[in-house]
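User: Here's a chain of 239 residues. Predict its fold as tokens.
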Amino acid sequence: MIFAAGLGTRLGAIGESTPKALVEVGGQTMLERTVRGLVEAGADRIIVNVHHHADRVARFVAEHDLGAEILVSREPERPLETGGGLLHARSFFRGNAPFVLHNVDVITDTDLRAMVAAHERNHPLATLAVKERETSRYLLFDDDGLFGREDRRHGTRFECRTPRGDVRTLAFAGIHVCSPQLLDHITERGVFPILEVYLRLAAERHAIEPWALTGSLWLEVGNLERLESARALLGASHT
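Assistant: Prediction complete.
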């Protein structure tokens, strides 16, 4: 599933006129880049949630062969964030295989097949791609997996259980691999981030494990400055 329902407000005028999923970087929309990365990793059925300029995204999907079946999950009243969006799209999910969640504004060359394989070996409820980088918000992991988060901008730290062993402070990279059982454990409703679910489940002793990002490319294209940097690196394009 690709999370693409955000309003794109941090992209300024570009975000007002164009859904983030259809903003181009290096001659490709961010949606196309994400889909093709997932297809290369073995996906043949992909859900895309939409809200802002939803019809434009749906039309793009209908008019382009992206190498997989693309299903559109509409959030007509408001964006439901990652957790609410996943729950809203639950009826689209099929089978018992792990599924990947991927932010549309993350561009990476990481080996998603390897990430899925690691998840299948270890059998946690979810595996989160993480990276050692500077940010204001971090996830906290110990020998048993996720146990908290830290917001350095606001000076807050939350631990959902007592840590055990070595503690690592890592930045989330916007990609998750989840066991299908996760869907049965979501009791939250309305608008909520999936991280709230993970922290609650970690407190209940479910395993939420980190996976160190591989590859040489990882970009989060969430604002104008980062968009300009991504275009400089990957080639200029126009929306």
